[in-house]
Amino acid sequence: MNEMGLRVVTGIALILVALGAAVIGGYAFAILAAAAATAVFYEWTRLAKGWGLHWQVLGFVYALLSALALLWIRDRAEDGLALLLWVFLVTWATDIGAYFAGRAIGGPKLAPTISPNKTWAGLYGGVAAASLFGGAWVLANGMHLVLILLAPLFAVAAQGGDLFESWMKRRASVKDSGNLLPGHGGIFDRLDGLLPVAILTAIAVLAGAA
């Protein structure tokens, strides 16, 4: 199987696992969130080795807050499952839209010194995809309409999380955060966009904006 095929198969498997645990909820989703946060923190510590204790503390807090945000959204927020799936959908749509728009259109680089493959077209494509699919999900499930406005903003945050992890990898002089996922690298590589979206969604709910 070529690299693209391996990426697709692994990606589909990850989506199915995430969706299955989300629908089941309870311990199943808690275990998945805890395992993902632990893996992210472990890979973070490897990337930030020698950068100082404050980087290790930051990684621990970032991974912990992300996991707690996902768990709280699923179990505590009104219409928790629908909102959690919105978080997934916005993040995944951003990644997919950015990938295909970037490849199809190309053009000026978004942050060439951090991630040479990312383009402004990819950013716009990711925002457009997240707005379209996130908005459709909100309307289909009768959710708070402010989420339609938040979708493009959180798409930018997702790509910001991606760029931040790319910066960490460049500083650490590594290609991937790990090698656990065939064709994808590490867990942090796959969740870099989800982490900020989860935290921001939880904040929006707590603030009464969603």
TrEMBL record:
<feature type="transmembrane region" description="Helical">
    <location>
        <begin position="12"/>
        <end position="41"/>
    </location>
</feature>
<dbReference type="GO" id="GO:0005886">
    <property type="term" value="C:plasma membrane"/>
</dbReference>
<feature type="transmembrane region" description="Helical">
    <location>
        <begin position="121"/>
        <end position="140"/>
    </location>
</feature>
<feature type="transmembrane region" description="Helical">
    <location>
        <begin position="147"/>
        <end position="167"/>
    </location>
</feature>
<protein>
    <recommendedName>
        <fullName>Phosphatidate cytidylyltransferase</fullName>
        <ecNumber>2.7.7.41</ecNumber>
    </recommendedName>
</protein>
<dbReference type="InterPro" id="IPR000374">
    <property type="entry name" value="PC_trans"/>
</dbReference>
<comment type="pathway">
    <text>Phospholipid metabolism; CDP-diacylglycerol biosynthesis; CDP-diacylglycerol from sn-glycerol 3-phosphate: step 3/3.</text>
</comment>
<keyword id="KW-0444">Lipid biosynthesis</keyword>
<dbReference type="Pfam" id="PF01148">
    <property type="entry name" value="CTP_transf_1"/>
</dbReference>
<keyword id="KW-1208">Phospholipid metabolism</keyword>
<keyword id="KW-1003">Cell membrane</keyword>
<feature type="transmembrane region" description="Helical">
    <location>
        <begin position="80"/>
        <end position="101"/>
    </location>
</feature>
<comment type="similarity">
    <text>Belongs to the CDS family.</text>
</comment>
<comment type="pathway">
    <text>Lipid metabolism.</text>
</comment>
<dbReference type="GO" id="GO:0004605">
    <property type="term" value="F:phosphatidate cytidylyltransferase activity"/>
</dbReference>
<feature type="transmembrane region" description="Helical">
    <location>
        <begin position="187"/>
        <end position="209"/>
    </location>
</feature>
<keyword id="KW-0548">Nucleotidyltransferase</keyword>
<dbReference type="GO" id="GO:0016024">
    <property type="term" value="P:CDP-diacylglycerol biosynthetic process"/>
</dbReference>
<keyword id="KW-0443">Lipid metabolism</keyword>
<keyword id="KW-0812">Transmembrane</keyword>
<keyword id="KW-0472">Membrane</keyword>
<keyword id="KW-0594">Phospholipid biosynthesis</keyword>
<keyword id="KW-0808">Transferase</keyword>
<keyword id="KW-1133">Transmembrane helix</keyword>
<feature type="transmembrane region" description="Helical">
    <location>
        <begin position="53"/>
        <end position="73"/>
    </location>
</feature>
